[in-house]
Amino acid sequence: MKSKKTPVYLYDLENTILQYRGRKEFFKKKGIEWTEQQYGEIEATKIYAQAIVEGLRDGAITVVVLPTARESLKCNQEKGILNIVYSAGMNKEIEAALNASNLLPYIDSWVSTFDLNLTKYKTENNFLLLYKKLLQKGKEIQAYFDDDEINLLATKNAAKQILNESGKKINIYLINPSGTMKSYINKTTENK
């Protein structure tokens, strides 16, 4: 008899459950330039992450929790669903943002893409690797939430492979520009 896996909802961090305020101003003050060309560069990301941590600690950067995020995460926990953050940020940045937002009590753990493959990108292979690692621990991803369509495409491709190999469906949701999550969370829980 197969043992039942603990359900997991996987969340991107920024623009999915929270947003930073004051980051651009703080970076400018510190002389940190962040460009799209630096996206994915490990050294640039380390500098970026350290600046976020410092800005949050000093109060120059603040965090706003998106509408319904806290309530949705709390509801998931009450139903026995694990909330895991899957982010392209560095671990220290993720932890600092969750602390600053007071969301840490609702997050069971977090995974940085750097933990999976030393890359900032959320690739199809990274998602498959994370899915397999969680399965080995008796946990199973049932839903993924992100605001970035490129990340969702990689996840969709991985989810198709998982469905074809195991018959397990992963619900994938694009968080809209207003940051509201209510309709996406309700749709996911209704599929249970």
Molecular shape: globular
Corresponding CATH architecture of the largest domain: 3-Layer(aba) Sandwich
Give the strand order of the largest sheet, numbering strands 1, 2, ... along the chain. Answer: 5-4-1-6-7
**Helix and strand run:** EEHHEHEHEHHEHEH
In short:
With 192 residues, the protein is an alpha/beta fold. Helices cover 47% and strands 19% of the residues. It has two domains: 6-18 and 65-190, Rossmann fold (3-Layer(aba) Sandwich), CATH 3.40.50.1000; 19-58, no CATH class.
What does this entry look like structurally?
It is built from eight helices and seven strands, in the order ββααβαβαβααβαβα. It is of the alpha/beta class and 192 residues long. Strands 5-4-1-6-7 form a five-stranded parallel β-sheet, with helices on both faces. The protein has a two-stranded antiparallel sheet with strand order 2-3. The protein folds into two domains: 6-18 and 65-190, Rossmann fold; 19-58, no CATH class. The model is unreliable at 181-192 (pLDDT under 50). Strand 6 (139-146), helix 7 and strand 7 (171-174) form a beta-alpha-beta unit. It is globular and about 55 Å long. It has helices spanning 23-30, 42-58, 69-78, 91-100, 113-117, 124-136, 149-166, 182-190; strands spanning 6-11, 18-21, 62-65, 82-87, 109-112, 139-146, 171-174.
What's the topology here?
Blueprint lengths: L5 E6 L6 E4 L1 H8 L11 H17 L3 E4 L3 H10 L3 E6 L3 H10 L8 E4 H5 L6 H13 L2 E8 L2 H18 L4 E4 L7 H9 L2
Parallel strand pairs: 1-4, 1-6, 4-5, 6-7
Antiparallel strand pairs: 2-3
